């Protein structure tokens, strides 16, 4: 069975790189999204095991993404980790 995806949302390459490596080590497949649009596309298409969102990045607009996930019954159940 292929590893389940985890979406990492952020634009700090150092943080994203570290998270992607840790996700791989944990047996998941990391997917990187740089902003809300990319994140929603990946989350909707991949139905990930979880989402890690760096809300402190201006391009990411993490609080907006959290609100959009909350408004969707299908996406609201996906576990999230907020940085």
Shape: globular
| Spatial strand order of the main sheet | 2-1-3-4
From the coordinates shown, what is the CATH architecture? Answer: 3-Layer(aba) Sandwich
The total count of strands amounts to 4
Number of helices: 3
| Structure classification | alpha/beta
Largest sheet: 4 strands, parallel
Oligomer, anyone? single chain
Total separate domains: 1
Order of helices and strands: EHEHEHE
Task: Indicate the CATH topology.
Answer: Rossmann fold
Name of the CATH homologous superfamily: Response regulator
Poorly predicted residue ranges: none
How would you characterize this protein structure?
The mean pLDDT is 92. Helix 3 links the parallel strand 3 and strand 4. This protein has one domain: Rossmann fold (3-Layer(aba) Sandwich), CATH 3.40.50.2300. It is α/β, with parallel strands linked by helices. The longest helix is centred in the first third of the chain and has 13 residues. The protein starts with a strand and ends with a strand. The chain is built from three helices and four strands, in the order βαβαβαβ.
Short description:
With 83 residues, the chain is α/β, with parallel strands linked by helices. The chain has helices at 13-25, 36-46, 62-71, and strands at 5-9, 29-33, 50-53, 80-82.
Keywords summarizing the entry:
83 residues, Rossmann fold, four-stranded parallel sheet, alpha/beta, 20% strand, 4 strands, globular
């Amino acid at each position: 069975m292929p590893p389940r995806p985890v979406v990492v949302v952020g634009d700090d390459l150092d943080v994203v790189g570290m998270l992607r490596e840790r996700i791989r080590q944990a047996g998941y497949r990391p997917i990187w999204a740089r902003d809300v649009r990319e994140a929603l596309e990946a989350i909707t298409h991949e139905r990930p095991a979880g989402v890690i969102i760096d809300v402190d990045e201006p391009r990411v607009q993490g609080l907006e993404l959290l609100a959009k996930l909350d408004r969707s019954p299908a996406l609201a159940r996906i576990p999230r980790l907020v940085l």
